[in-house]
Design goal:
CATH topology of the largest domain: Rossmann fold
Number of domains: 2
CATH architecture of the largest domain: 3-Layer(aba) Sandwich
Shape: elongated
Strand order of the largest sheet: 3-2-1-4-5-6
CATH superfamily of the largest domain: NAD(P)-binding Rossmann-like Domain
Strand content: 25-35%
Length: 222
Amino acid sequence: MKVVVAGGGSVGRFTAEQLVAAGHEVTIIENDRSVVAEYAENEPSVKLKWHRGDACDVAVLAAAGVTMADVVASVTGDDEDNLVVSLLAKQEFGVPRVIARVNNPNNYWMFNDMWGVDVSVSTPHLITSLVQEAVAVGNLVRLMQLKGGKAELVEVTLADNSPARDKVLGDLLLPRSASVVAIVRDSRVLMPTPDMVLRVGDEVMALITEDAEAAVQQILIG
């Protein structure tokens, strides 16, 4: 897989290094000459390339190989830059998957498909979700937004009074736009099957669209 990462800071470098370790070809776009010189020279890699330039420039994106990229991840420390890069990657180059970092939580609402963002990553929102996931029982916790907020990965820990308690998963009549993707039981991840019986304490993870949220809450929470 070919990946272009916009932003050569600590987040961009770590992301790129992890992807290279997984066998992917990665190009980092960074505008700071000193950063490019330091890391490109000291950490040479066949699969990790550096390209100096402003990632908000169409010509720079083209020269960095965005035309052939499977994924573009814009992870700079500036939300405006991340939005511009995302929009260009999607509209000008038709990149299949665009991921953007959200630095200011107040800007989270803008990171949607209107700006070419398929997945937005906001550290404050992620931390909040993880805290809720650890302590909340009987509540719907949003773990991640996908497709600019049109789809969500959510989690519900079944409480004693859950309508789904002791019910067979296939009998829950979930809406068509909702699908249970995993169940965590006693620290084990279980693949859901239609004949699986849900228990109190099960962490039910589901991929849903916005219009299905109310129905899913009613079925799993009541």
